Amino acid sequence: MEHVGQVMNQAEEWLGQLHPGLRTALTAALFTASEILMALTCLGGPLALGALCFCSAATVTVSKYMAKRYNWSETTMNDLAWDLVSSGWKIVMKLWHGQEFRGFENIPSDRGALIIWFHGPMPADYFGLIGEIWIRQRRILKTVMDRVLVFMPGSWMFMKNMGCILPDQDECVAALKQGEVLGIAPGGSRESLYTEGYYTLWNGRVGFAKVALKAEVPIIPVFTQNIQQAYMSMKSGGFLWRQIFERIKMPIIPIWGGFPVKLITHIGEPILPRPDETPEELKERVKNAVEDLIRKHQDSNVGLLDALRQRWAIQTDAATTDIKTHSSNGTATFTV
Known about the structure:
Elements: H1 2-16, H2 20-41, H3 44-69, H4 74-97, E1 100-102, E2 113-117, H5 124-137, E3 141-144, H6 155-161, E4 164-165, H7 169-177, E5 181-184, H8 188-193, H9 207-215, E6 219-225, H10 227-230, E7 231-233, H11 238-248, E8 255-257, E9 264-267, H12 279-297, H13 304-326
Parallel strand pairs: 1-9, 2-5, 2-6, 3-4, 3-5
Antiparallel strand pairs: 6-9, 7-8
Helix pairs in contact: 3-4, 3-6, 4-5, 7-9, 9-12
């Protein structure tokens, strides 16, 4: 360890002696090299998440096919498929990220509601929320998907069987008036892939506010703590990646991660549209609510290692508490 420390000190001294311009260029080159290495070695997380997502859609699709083929009850088969899919997501997210939901009672179970959520580099937290809503409320969280995803192979399964719809205001209003719960991420790909840090990037998008005003339903702000530590997109060449997206509207950028950090999904209090409120005013209220959740629950100085330590510390504390609680009975419970 002493040898490693000496090497690091010598490296810092050497870098300090370089010309400032050269030092900046070398630092940027090393950072880019480190991101390329991470992208090449840590693709497993996003790939596994994508595979689970497609398996979920395939499960519901096959259940509907089997119901029609053998004249079984489509409702029963659909419920069984959603039970399997939701339980699978709950188990995976609990083991993988220790996902928790705080404020779930803010999602009404007896009327339509519009969930506005902060979009991380990968929507692992949102998939967990879809499963949690089905398990607790027996309702499918419908999702407004980006139009570009229509060109994704297999997208028809999500649109036909998983409750995904295109951003059409009339269709969204109709779903909400029928008592559905609908999820929208106003920031979309820009917010999830092309921002550095936890910042909302909604630009002039007010469509969701118009929908809420027409449907007269509450808006529920949602933010997941540490989502940008669990999954990451490349920051090197950020301007280039952003320009590619703006020109072809296709989110082409390296993503990596799947790091087992603790994810806590915070569900804020319902925001009720006011009769005399404009869409722009409602949008600002909702945006402020999401940003308040970020400021309250996300430490901007937390890095990957810090987030991993936090999960280990939480698990250790929980296990210690369980041991103390059950020690009088001669049993011990350990938290995974």
